[in-house]
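dumping these here so i dont lose them again. two proteins, back to back, each one seq then structure tokens. dont judge the mess
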Amino acid sequence: MFEKIRLKVQGMNCIHCATAVKSVLSETKGVSTVKVNYKNNQADLEYDSSQVNINELINEIRKIGFDASRVS
């Protein structure tokens, strides 16, 4: 089942940061679309919850040096 989520990504301060976050999320199994805005510190994505969960997505972001949390 596909779900949409918005994550707050802390530590992004340039387009290169946003590109890195977008790249790691895009390469994650189950993720279909990703939009990242470093000015708003947000990542909007659509993913298949049967293939990946929110914690795994957050951990992928943390692996590249940023912190992330779900926006309610």
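---- next one ----
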Amino acid sequence: MANPKPVLIEEITVPLIATSPSQSIFIADDNYQVVGVQAVADVLGGAGATVTVEVLTGVQAPGAGVAQLTAPLALNGVAHQVVTGTLIAAPTTAAAGNRIGIVMAGTLTGLVGYVTIAIQRVWAGTDSALFTVKGSTSVGDDPAPSPTLMTYAAAQGLANTYAQKYRGATGIVRDANGNTIYTSPTYALLAPGVGF
């Protein structure tokens, strides 16, 4: 298997000050989605001071991308209080060459703080990495030793096979950080005397 993928989740921290512009902060080298955003203002900004996160494609200027939060994060509320953003229902996948950026708004006068954006790789079936495949119950054997270098499609297949064999259970695929990235369907129990 060529080109195993690295760890899935990365965090990007951007300092914010009164002169912080709306800007690109990450260029995707693969498919990624924003999975979390938090900000804090140690010194509050002025009226309407906010930050949000967006995905930009092509030559879009900062501020013209697709917002990834349902509402911008206020930077003028309570000093030193961490605020957490609510992601849109279907976060945009930033493909290779797309950018993730921040959009600053309002009166930033006096602002001192930072925003942290967590991004997660979106796996394709042909991507290979060290995946862990486990069952959701202690019934039977785990379908693969863990962690094992395999493609994402192979890991999904093992999880699904486990769920079909041990009906009522699910197979779970985890990344190198232990994050669950796939859960198999749960298959109904068979009638007595019916085999797999």
